[in-house]
Amino acid sequence: MDTSLSRRRRRSTRTCSRTPWHSGSSAGNATSIGLELRPEATDGDYATAAELIRELRAAFSDLSLVKHSSWKTTACPGRWNLERLDALARTAGSSGGVAKPAAPPTPTAPVPPRTTNPAGRPLLALDGHLGAATIRELQHRFGTTVDGVISTGKGGSRLVAALQRYLVSKGHDLGKVDGLGLYPNTVHRTIRTRTQEALQRYLGTTPDGVLDAPSAAIEALQRRLNAGTF
To answer: For residue range 18-36, what is the model confidence (pLDDT) as tens digits?
Structure first.
């Protein structure tokens, strides 16, 4: 394959004393530098030609690539893609060689799954049940006695009262803070309370006032307790 680097309307930084007969055109012979390239046009051929073009451009300014068929009717440059060749020459290294591919990223060790919450306690199972472990973590959150039990006797639960005050601070109207209204969920439980409805609203789940088993609200609560964001 014959291709040319055109010097038309350019002032060369060097003087050439001989005119080659490579293009089949007097204009092409007088204004270009001919390159005779392998017709196979392999990746290695592209790399070699790109390096040569870079060296010629360093000596004769930013020469454009011109097909042999632009000077004379011919099948040249065959399978050669001058746009690819030009781009490759312009991305070559400073020494004229083809730019080296970027080094592969250094593999990093996989991050083991988290097993504790921000306070260092074991993560809760996301089972949607308001069991002892979830109650204990909620008691840690509000600073009440940590026993995993919600009191339902006279005076209610300090934990529930703290939760109610928190929900009120978030804009939920509960009517009163009495320490009652949060019941561990069981199958087919039908007790509806304003506290449970407010908790469901706060957690972004269906506010029906019932913590069934399993409960989407309690699962959302468990996720937040695990992340330390409740």
So the answer is: 777 776 777 777 788 888 8
Cα–Cα distance measured from residue 74 to residue 78, given in angstroms and rounded to the nearest whole number: 9
- Residue-wise pLDDT tens digits, 52-71: 888 888 888 888 888 887 77
Q: How far apart are CA 74 and CA 84, in angstroms?
A: 21
Please state whether the peptide bond connecting residue 214 to the residue before it is cis, i.e. omega within 30 degrees of 0.
yes
Neighbours of 111 (CB within 10 A): 6
Residue with tokens 């970027």: 102
Helices H / strands E in the chain, number of each: 7, 3
Which band of pLDDT confidence, cut at 50, 70 and 90, is reported for residue 10?
very low
Neighbour-count burial of 200, counting CB atoms closer than 10 A to its CB (0-12 exposed, 13-18 middle, 19+ buried):
buried
Residue 143's SS3 state is: coil
- pTM of the prediction? 0.54
DSSP 111: P
List all residues 6 or more positions away from 219 whose beta carbon is below 8 Å from its beta carbon. Answer: 126, 127, 128
End-to-end CA distance of the chain: 72
Report the C-alpha gap between 193 and 174 in whole angstroms. Answer: 9
**CA distances, 113 to each of 110, 119, 123 (Å):** 9, 16, 11
With beta carbons less than 8 A apart as the criterion, state whether 160 and 179 touch. Answer: yes
pLDDT band at 76 (very low <50, low <70, confident <90, very high): confident
Under a CB-based contact definition with an 8 Å cutoff, are residues 13 and 58 in contact? Answer: no
Residues in the chain, how many? Answer: 230
